[in-house]
UniProtKB/TrEMBL annotation:
Belongs to the short-chain dehydrogenases/reductases (SDR) family. GO terms for biological process: fatty acid biosynthetic process. Transmembrane segments: none annotated. This is Related to L-2,3-butanediol dehydrogenase. It comes from the Eukaryota. Keywords: NADP. Gene3D superfamilies: NAD(P)-binding Rossmann-like Domain (3.40.50.720). The keyword NADP applies.
């Protein structure tokens, strides 16, 4: 059987890295898409994936093409189209799963938000997801439906899966994160529209909503919140963790299991959902 291929944006570190490694353990071929400046870190992830592929349980299943890195700025549509095409062709014209994970935080009191902040976070967090949905869908149709946009009569055949990164801030908006929250509400909305519009083509679209994840992004949020509300460094993170029912900060590995499920066959009948993995912060 041909191995499945997945592209993960923002996979040089943090949550994306964990998703790439988890999918590798499931036998996926992996395309890592991240900013050019992340090439070094992406190379480290590639080496980790190669070690996973060399384990007995995976090497026994048959050969996997080596992971690839392709530099991209997800806010630039043509660069995303080029990246998706290039990675699919490196995997012998295969693509099964597109994970639109890349995103940035934007920290500012609502009354102080600037047009530049609005532009930046919307272009990356919302535009990046839209660009990924469009580019991957075209490639799914080209290679997995022989170029046909004829709708399937029923939804039994899934030819591609899109998985977007939302957030708890996409379910309930947070103070000092108004633009970030708005961007993640938009990701949830795009996920629902894509699910409805792409279902006739056999493409599903879901999202994962992490909570307070202990990555570089939260180090940055904590530092910037300190500048806004004056709480000592580390205190904003500590207070946020206290709001979690399970009383610990989230790890990227807490999320990648759900994403692997959404990428696999067992989730074929799930589409349009935004699934929280937050240790119990948001309940909707
Ligand atoms: P991170 O900062 O550790 O990693 C983000 C990755 O995205 C980096 O590798 C970065 O280079 C890449 N990236 C940023 N802008 C890009 C662009 N324009 N084009 C291509 N790549 C770009 O953050 P993380 O915590 O791993 O976040 C990953 C996703 O999870 C983001 O969408 C974020 O909004 C979401 N999220 C994070 C948290 C959290 O608490 N950390 C919570 C909810 C949602």
């Amino acid at each position: 059987m041909t191995p499945k291929t997945a592209i993960i944006t923002g996979a040089a570190q943090g949550i994306g890295r964990s998703i790439a490694l988890r999918l590798a353990t499931k036998g996926f071929q992996i395309g890592i898409a991240d900013l050019e400046q992340q090439r070094g870190k992406a190379g480290e992830v590639i080496n980790e994936i190669k070690k996973i592929y060399a384990t007995d349980s995976l090497s026994a299943k048959g050969p996997l093409l080596p992971p690839v890195f392709y530099p991209v700025d997800v806010s630039d549509k043509s660069s995303v189209v080029e990246m998706v095409d290039a990675i699919a062709s490196k995997f012998d014209n295969h693509l099964d799963v597109m994970i639109n994970n890349a995103g940035i935080a934007s920290i500012s009191k609502l009354l102080d938000c600037t047009p530049e902040q609005l532009d930046k976070v919307m272009k990356i967090n919302v535009g990046g997801v839209l660009n990924g949905i469009q580019a991957a869908s075209k490639v799914f149709v080209k290679y997995n439906r022989n170029g046909s946009y004829e709708p399937y009569e029923n939804g039994n055949k899934i030819v591609g899966k899109i998985i977007n990164c939302c957030s708890i801030a996409g379910n309930e908006a947070f103070p000092i994160l108004p633009l970030y929250s708005a961007s993640k509400f938009a990701v949830k909305s795009l996920t629902q529209s894509a699910a409805k519009e792409l279902a006739p083509l056999g493409i599903t679209c879901n999202a994962y909503a992490p909570g307070i994840v202990l990555t570089k992004m939260w180090d940055h949020i904590d530092e910037e919140m300190h500048k806004v509300n004056g709480l000592p460094i580390g205190e904003n993170l500590k207070k946020s963790i206290e709001s979690i029912a399970l009383k610990r900060g989230e790890t990227p590995e807490d999320i990648s299991g759900l994403v692997a499920f959404l990428a696999g066959d067992e989730s074929d009948y799930i589409t349009g959902q935004n699934i929280s993995v937050d240790g119990g912060i948001c309940y909707n």
